[in-house]
Each structure stands twice: as C-alpha cells, then as structure tokens.
Amino acid sequence: MIRRFFISLLVGLALPTPHDAQVAPGTTTALEVAVEDAAALWSRHDGTGFANDVVRAAFHAVGVEVTLRVVPYARCKQLVIEGAVPACFSMSRDPALKGVVLFPSMPILVCYADLVQDPARPVRATRLRDLPRGTVVGTVLGYEYPDAVREAVKTGAIVLDEAPSEDMLLRKLAAGRLPVALVNVNDNKSVGYLSALAQIAKPAVRVERVGALESFVGFSARHARGPWALKKYEEGMRLIGASGTLTAITRRWADSSQAAIRTARPETSRPRP
C-alpha cells in the first residue's frame, strides 16, 4: 500500500497543470512578482539585491522570466493577500496568513530580529522583556517579527513606532528619536552594513537577538497563477541549489556587503533624522 501511495504521488506530481500545458518545451513564460523596495541588501529600491537574484535565478531555471514590481513592503504583502499578484517577497510565516498565502518548503534566507541601540545612548535593559513598560521600539511598517515581539505588543510592554525602512530606523536611533529598534539581519545584511547604509557616525549596537525568522517568497492562494508559480519556484530552487548557482549568488552578495562596510566613512558621516 505504501509503495502504491508513493507511485501515485510521483505520477500526480508529473501531471501538467493547465499553465504547464500552455508552455511548450524550450520556451519561456513571463510572470510578474512583487518585491519590497527597502530591504537592502536583500531587496533594494532599484530592483537589485540578493533575494531578487535568487528568485530570478530559480524561475529562470524552469523557463519562467520574472518581472519585478518594486513596492513598499506593506503594499507588497497586501497585493499578494488580495490576489492582485501571484507572489511577494520576502515574507515570513504569520498565522494570520494561513490559507491566504502559500509558502514553499525552502526559504530564500534565514534572518534574525536584533534589538539594537545607539551606543551613545545605551538602555539599561539587556533583553526585550526587561525594557521599561511602554518603551517605544522602532520597527518597519508591515514587517513580521518573532512571537516575543507580538506578545510584548499585545500585553502593552512595548509600543511600536513604524518607519518605512530599517535605515530610517537607524537614523532615528542616532538622532535620539528612538531608544531602541528592531532590525532583521543575517551574516551578509549585518547591523554594520545597515549602519553604513544609514550613514550614521557610530554603528548601532545589538542589545539582544530576539529570535529567528525564515524569509520566503509568499504565493497567493487567491491568484490564478499562485499555486502554479509556487510549484515552478520550488522546482527552480532545487535546480539552482544543485548547480551551484545559489552558492555563487550568496558569495557575490557577501562580498558586496563587506565592500560596503569597508568603504563607509563614519568619520565624515552625520546622523540624519
């Protein structure tokens, strides 16, 4: 019975979807995907970035050429929820999106939500939960954060001050307009990189690593091409992982991140409100 089940599963996966049937072997199809505009170096306002390159490469590997609609993250998220676009990235899983947004098995990247402060104005707490009740915490409009953050907001332990981007958060932090902020980072997109991007004189300092988040392409369950695009993307991710393309993209953007930090000139930078 188990053998028959797996044979049936494999046959089902091999059957073409209506969209697959429309694409002849050796040809390409086009797909518009929404992407956030202010998450450098993962996704930048000019349509470039690590995540952008990964998504393009994954779809290209299966004959799908992607056009990116670059929008603020809150708009990107709303477009995919409404079914106005088949996909948006980069999104993290949120229980509120269950049944509305479909997530692939493999994230584009894993990041960490770091609580940061201005070294010139350190807070007395060393953990999010130890902040004085009602502390204002800077976040980005529409971003997902770990459960600990959502719970702290729900209980009134912290109050969120939302900005359009993380470099704006760090500028507000350096100008004394925020006591702490939350930024999503990893080895490539570090706090040091974000500080260089924000052109602040002294890089922000981590108070606590609040939690981890997986960042995905989110596919719309309401868009006619959402489930089809999800299947093609997963196939493409497997291909670029096996070919070494994903490793090459990761290495290239890691080098770019380090170069940005090295060329930053903090001695001539000024905090910008």
The gist of it:
The protein has 9 helices and 9 strands. It has 273 residues and is an alpha/beta fold.
Can you give the mean pLDDT? 88
Task: State the helical fraction.
Answer: 25-40%
Order of helices and strands: HHEHEHEEEEHEHEHEHH
Shape summary: globular
Report the structural category.
alpha/beta
| Separation of the first and last Cα atoms | 66 Å
What is the CA-atom radius of gyration, in angstroms? 20 Å
The tally of helices reads: 9
Task: Characterize the main sheet.
Answer: 9 strands, mixed
Number of strands: 9
Strand content: 15-25%
Oligomer: single chain
Question: Which blocks of ≥5 consecutive residues have pLDDT under 50?
Answer: 1-25, 266-273
Summarize the structure in words.
- The chain has about 270 residues and is of the alpha/beta class.
- It is built from nine helices and nine strands.
- It has helices at about 1-15, 20, 50-60, 75-80, 145-155, 165-175, 190-200, 225-245, 245-265, and strands spanning about 30-35, 65-70, 85-90, 100, 110-115, 135-140, 160-165, 180-185, 205-220.
- Strands 1, 2, 3, 4, 5, 6, 7, 8 and 9 form a nine-stranded mixed β-sheet that branches.
- β1 (about 30-35), α3 and β2 form a beta-alpha-beta unit.
- The radius of gyration is 20 Å and the shape is globular.
- About 40% of the residues are buried.
What layout of secondary structure does this protein have?
Layout: H1 2-14, H2 18-21, E1 29-36, H3 50-60, E2 64-71, H4 73-82, E3 87-91, E4 101-102, E5 109-117, E6 135-140, H5 147-154, E7 158-163, H6 166-174, E8 180-185, H7 191-198, E9 205-220, H8 226-243, H9 245-263
Parallel strand pairs: 1-2, 1-3, 6-7, 6-8
Antiparallel strand pairs: 3-9, 4-9, 5-8, 5-9
Helix pairs in contact: 3-8, 3-9, 6-7, 7-9
